[in-house]
Amino acid sequence: MTMRFLGDTAVLTGRSLRHITRSLDTIFTTTITPIAMMLLFVYVLGGAIRTGSDSYVTYLLPGILLITIASGIAYTSFRLFMDMKSGIFERLRSMPIARSSVLWAHVLTSLVANLLSVVVVVLVALLIGFRSSAGLPAWLAVTGILLLFTLALTWLAVIPGLSAKSIDGASAFSYPLIFLPVISSAFVPTDTMPGPVRAFAEHQPVTSIVNAIRALLTQQPVGTDIWIALAWCVGILVVTFGLAMNVYRRKIT
Amino acid sequence: MTTQQVPAIQVRGLEKSYEDLRVLRGVDFEVARGSVFALLGSNGAGKTTTMRILATLLKADAGTAAVNGFDVATHPANVRESLSLTGQFAAVDEILSGRENLVLVARLRHLDRPGEIADELLERFSLTDAAARKVSTYSGGMRRRLDIAMSLVGDPPVIFLDEPTTGLDPQGRIEVWQAVRQLADQGTTVLLTTQYLDEAEHLADRIAILHEGRIIVNGTLAELKRLLPPARIERVEKQPTLEDVFLSLVGR
Ligand SMILES: Nc1ncnc2c1ncn2[C@@H]1O[C@H](COP(=O)(O)OP(=O)(O)O)[C@@H](O)[C@H]1O
Ligand SMILES: [Mg+2]
């Protein structure tokens, strides 16, 4: 049964990866907004922002990467919705394949697609002056956090993908996610914000994740941020995975 | 289990409601192994609902159904091994090529040599020339043929075709009819639904009419034609069509 699950998931992941390689424009569409924001903040607003670090683009990059992922996961909803609408989903359901392979294939594809988008954004950041002296372990830790964050949000994206009535409904949920980083430490230090806003900013998941990645990239001590960040990611993952599987189970019975 | 003696499909007292709407109110029929059975009914009669229950995609409220001797409620995995469903709307992957679609299904059915199986089916459904093209460039008839070809991967003993020709132009329709006849010739059991009486007339060994939640008649074409009220004396020799039978039975 496990072998069959792995085999079926691999076959279906191969299928949706082909969708990605045949429409690479989705990768560019995903990265265009974060790149535009990065350029805007670095070249227009950045001069007026005091972050206490030498390079604003280095300060900014972690938040931009999270925005990239938050907009990238909308494609998982989109692809899942299209499978439901086109009847592929029904066809797969009436075939003797491991039942959750269909979802896992979309989730694994999302990890690959978002990793690609993140690489594109990092390359652009390097072009405009981002530098990091972080070694391999720190980069691996950053990649791990980003993958975990992608995984958590992808399972969230599965829910509207399975239950939306229209294509717009399937991707609309991601808009608020893209703005969450704005009220966090992603663009400016939180200590410049007024009381209630600051309280929100300091206690929402994005801030701890941004701080942890920033510390890793600038070789600062990560402190407790990394544990808070991991706790948020795992917590969100457990909840979204549980909800998505629940919706899926109701859909297939 | 000896599955050779039992009918390919057995349906008894099947009931299904969507909230207040009682779609199936006790549907009974059997489909003999190797035959083509047409479920005829107007739009909304419950044909798709019946097929979805048989394909384990939907649970019945009451009654039993078995495919290839396996109960759909208690042995869904065996049922899924035994049948292939071609839904009312072509379920093909538009972004992949025709060949890739077939290879995908062959891999998911855990068959050896998926490439060879794909090439064979492409040939059989006259899709070899279009094999490498993205499905989004296919015509309606080609898409439907690919859809049916995908259902045939692995030679399942029972095939369901839900309104296989709805929305096709006459040429596409003829192509699909040929495909169904080929299936019948090689001994596959085919359950098809249709709103077109002539389609049932052309393809099916037996025809059942689903009306107001029940099977109101079930027989061969000749038997159905005999059900026509005899009071009909015409000077011009005219064979009653299935349409006449249908209209007289549903009382319109
Ligand atoms: N998921 C559903 N929820 C509510 N009503 C449905 C659903 N699916 C089908 N129906 C209704 O059930 C009736 C039978 O539908 P269906 O089985 O699709 O008929 P057919 O395939 O014969 O056209 C129709 O009136 C249809 O509107
Ligand atoms: Mg229907």
From TrEMBL, chain A:
InterPro entries, alphabetized = ABC2_TM, ABC2_TM_bact-type, ABC_2_transport, Nod_factor_ABC_transporter
Identify a single GO molecular function assigned to this protein: ABC-type transporter activity
Does Transport show up as a keyword for this record? Answer: yes
Q: What is its main location?
A: membrane
Q: Answer whether the UniProt record assigns the keyword ATP-binding to this protein.
A: no
> Sorted alphabetically, which Pfam families does this protein's record hold?
ABC2_membrane
- Transmembrane segments in this chain: where? 24-44, 56-81, 102-130, 136-158, 170-188, 226-248
Give every ABC transmembrane type-2 domain span. 25-251
Subcellular localization: Cell membrane; Membrane
Query: What does the entry list under GO cellular component?
Result: ATP-binding cassette (ABC) transporter complex
Q: Which GO terms describe its biological process?
A: response to antibiotic
- Mode of membrane association: Multi-pass membrane protein
The UniProt similarity line reads:
Belongs to the ABC-2 integral membrane protein family.
Q: What is this protein called?
A: Transport permease protein
UniProtKB/TrEMBL annotation, chain B:
Name the Gene Ontology biological process terms.
response to antibiotic
Occurrences of domain ABC transporter (ranges): 9-237
Topology of this chain in the membrane:
Peripheral membrane protein
Give the molecular function GO annotations: ATP binding; ATP hydrolysis activity
Q: Does the keyword Membrane apply?
A: no
One GO cellular component term of this record is:
plasma membrane
Kindly list the places in or outside the cell where this protein is found, as annotated in its UniProt entry: Cell membrane
Q: Which UniProt keywords apply?
A: Antibiotic resistance, ATP-binding, Nucleotide-binding, Transport
What family does the database annotate? Answer: Belongs to the ABC transporter superfamily.
Q: What is this protein called?
A: ATP-binding cassette domain-containing protein
